[in-house]
Amino acid sequence: MSETQSVFGAETQDLEGRTLSNRELLVALLRKPQFDICLLLVLVFFAMAAVPRLFTSADPRYCELAKSAHSREPGHPFGFDIQGCDYLANVVYGARPSVLVSLVAGFGGFIVAGLLGLLAGYFPGLVDTVISRVADVLFALPGLIALIVILNSVPDRSIWIIVAIILVTGWPQGMRIMRSTVFSVRNREYVLAARSIGVPPLRILRKHVFPNAMAPLLAMTTLGIGGLIGLEAALTFLGVGLQPPSISWGSQFGVAASYRDAPHLFIWPALFISTMTISFMIIGDSIRDALDPKLLR
Predict the structure, then answer these.
(1) d(Cα 275, Cα 283) in Å, to the nearest integer?
(2) Is 239 left (phi over 0), alpha (psi -120 to 50) or beta?
(3) Which of 48, 257, 264, 238 is CA-nearest to residue 157?
């Protein structure tokens, strides 16, 4: 009985097939100094997005045109934007759109791709055919160009509209990864044993297949969040992202492109975007390495 219970466990397996508990995975990650540093940086960005007044007391809407594009001075370490607004406050308040878009689109994509890949991999036939053919159609769209065209046709581009469109166009790659992993998991002994004793398919998927098939998709998602931060900034820079009066790092890039004699307008949002993007990518690399030790050999 103990052997049967162990194979029915819902612990995560690494990519070599060894079972890892959540505690073991967390301990393995926390032993990596680069993971700890990047996790701390990401938590700071989260706090900045959630409670910006912890980082600045200035009002990003209060402007003095006489200080337009001035460099830093006492009390204003980032200087001023072209309207004379405190640039530190603008950069801090601009963190919220980037954090929301990257996290909601990233983990929303994980859920959508995970569920569809789970169904496509476990139910070959009609279900797999329908999901895979829809994914093929979306794969045929030319990526960034498709996003630009779609967003350009939307009159009111809020954060949630941008997230929804990224989700609709971005799930096929993750679905393919999840589907291929489920194909290898669905015929393992513990899944076959569960089927043989009449466990319902949805329970098998939830308890046995998904926990042991999600590792590659999880690693890809954490790696992809960094790219989503840059994508949000690029869309706003190209004029199809967030609209004024919303403040974002992408909109600050768009303004900085027209004022090359004020380099601080570009440097600060670029530094924040780069730091947050690299932090997420290192976290993703660390998770992937913890789940697949062969990569370290």
Answers:
(1) 12
(2) left
(3) 238
Cβ(91)–Cβ(233) below 8 Å: no
Kindly compute the dihedral angle of the four CA atoms of residues 81, 84, 87, 93, in this order, to the nearest 10 degrees. -100
- Convert the pLDDT of each residue in 239-250 to its tens digit: 888 777 778 888
Q: Give the phi and the psi of residue 157 in degrees, each rounded to 5.
A: -95, 90
The H or E element containing residue 13 is strand 12-13
Token reading at 84: 């004379």
Q: Is the peptide bond before 216 cis (omega within 30 degrees of 0)?
A: no
Pairwise CA distance, residues 125 & 163, whole Å: 31
pLDDT in tens, 2-49: 333 333 334 555 444 445 566 777 777 888 889 899 999 999 999 999
For residues 85 and 239, is the Cβ–Cβ distance under 8 A? Answer: no
What count of other Cβ atoms lies within 10 Å of the Cβ of residue 15?
16
Q: Which of 273, 234, 223, 275 is nearest to 110 (CA)?
A: 223
**Residue appearing with tokens 């997230």:** 163
The pTM assigned to this predicted structure is: 0.77
Asked if 30 contacts 36 with a C-beta cutoff of 8 angstroms, the reply is yes
- Looking at residue 52, the DSSP 8-state letter turns out to be G
The continuous run of DSSP H or E covering 103 comes out as: helix 95-122
